[in-house]
Predict the 3D structure of the following.
Amino acid sequence: MEWLYCDFHIHTTWSDGAYPVKEVIRMYGEAGFDVISITDHVLDSQSLLGCNNKGERHCSVEQRHFTEYRRELWGAARYAWETWNMLVIPGIELTNDTSRYHILGLDVKEYISPDLGVEEIVREIHAQGGISVACHPYIRNHSGDAPSEYLWANRDRFATIFDAWEVANRDDLFNVVGLKKFNYVANSDFHEEKHFRSWKTLLRCAKNTEAVKAAVRTNDAVSLFLYRGGKLK
Ligand code: ZN
Ligand code: ZN
């Protein structure tokens, strides 16, 4: 079975990314990626209020727009499959900047509030048939912070409730995640063009959503690679 080129953490103009969904998908499709997930921010209510008060646009996929977001991703997924044979898995990044945890929900079907506690969020993702990933749990060189420090501070409690942890995000490798032998993936956390060349995941499995989710969960045919640009195939 072939190895699939994957990236499970990508933002668009639905939140604070620079490009609309179709453009992002074209970039990945033309480069030859096999599987991507669009994961725009869904912000906790306190952070959303702060963001809106600052007059910033595209802070978050708000609950009242969630169906529209899903529909655009379904349409884009079909386009990506027909054009490049690339699988697009709709997702979200549950972003709690008040309590400081960011969690990817991949293949979620309904809105989930990031105001919920970590265990509740993961339970809800699983109830919807999705998988969960603990995002950038350690200090990032490019920003000097750890926006998910709550997850790392409580890693013993959360070690196995996530389907995987990000062992790499953008340019950063989190050795500590590897040392703990947690299930892992590596993602770009794409917001703008320069984030395209970054750590990504290789998975060996069939190219369909259920097989990809199972491969992340079992984590026995997974690898990292540092994408340097250009065409993969
Ligand atoms: Zn994040
Ligand atoms: Zn992100």
